[in-house]
Amino acid sequence: MKFHKVVYVIIGLCFTGVITAALPQQRKDWLPLLRAVSSPLHLAIQQHSMSAVQMCIQHGAPIDARDEKGWSPLHLAASINDNEMPKIIGALLSAFAPKDTVDRQGKRPLHIAAENKNINVIKALLPDKNINAKDKNGKTALDYAIAQRNKSVIEVLKSAGAKSNMNEAEFCQDEECFQEDVE
To answer: Over the stretch 119-128, which tens digit does the pLDDT of each residue have?
Structure first.
């Protein structure tokens, strides 16, 4: 409970700009954490806190802010395999977070979710009119799912219309090497 109060204080200070003036003198040990996130919304997502995400959105936190990887808040949420993330993704999408934003590698949030085997996050991101978008390496979300050998993720993406230039047989000769969805 005490930790959540600290998170709210940090988020509040970020909104007011006080953090840049007050924190270096008082809590230098927090600076690496704050530098690792580019926005209060990123920090709220890292803490898996739906209430903090909602507070950030209500107070106008930039929905398209980027971190050092070029990740938007939606990319970050797509990377975390947690029961709270589909709800957080729903809140971000309701606030008009763009699904088609790309990071420095050309990956969209759907690529990130497939790469991390986040089936519930993938379901939250679907339907997606650009489900077959390719990153800078020419890979689709389905390509990442195939590379991860996760049968459940592959099936969800295929049922949503995902296509791949890759063949599952390139990665696996028998059905046993595919993993079922592990949460």
So the answer is: 999 999 999 9
